[in-house]
Design brief:
The protein is 81% helix and 0% strand. With 134 residues, it is mostly helical.
Length: 134
């Protein structure tokens, strides 16, 4: 697969941000990586989910990734770049989280959840209720 420098940089940023949020407030895959792959890399929902699961192969995702891969919904190159940078982001995010109060971390977690939920509901709702919805 041929990727331009801009795409590689976006994937690196996704990995670092997801890792930081994972270390900071315990979120990453479904909440950060999946939407980021959709909005910044142009993957569809299933491709983003499959690629996100490929990042987690060693601990939990091997069987699910096999199913997504069979249907062409995994981008292993994206998954590898994000997985490598996720480690660095996780380290940095945990360092930040451990230096501030748990109340503030909980607040940031809630804000991230609200923003993500609103964004996904809003974009899904406009498509869901149009004449072109699948």
């Amino acid at each position: 697969m041929n990727m331009d420098l801009n795409s590689i940089l976006i994937l690196i940023l996704i990995g670092i941000c997801a890792g930081m949020l994972s270390g900071f407030i315990g979120v990453g895959g479904g909440l950060v990586i999946v939407p980021a792959l959709i909005y910044f890399m142009g993957l569809n929902q299933l491709q983003a989910q499959g690629t996100s699961l490929a990042i987690m192969i060693p601990p939990i995702g091997i069987m699910a990734v096999m199913n997504y891969h069979k249907t062409g919904n995994v981008n292993f190159t994206y998954a590898l770049i994000i997985a490598i940078t996720f480690v660095l982001g996780g380290y940095l995010g945990s360092k930040i989280a451990l230096k501030i109060s748990p109340v503030k971390v909980k607040f940031f977690f809630g804000i991230i959840l609200l923003y993500s939920a609103f964004r996904m509901i809003w974009t899904s709702g406009t498509t869901l209720f149009s004449n072109h919805a699948n």
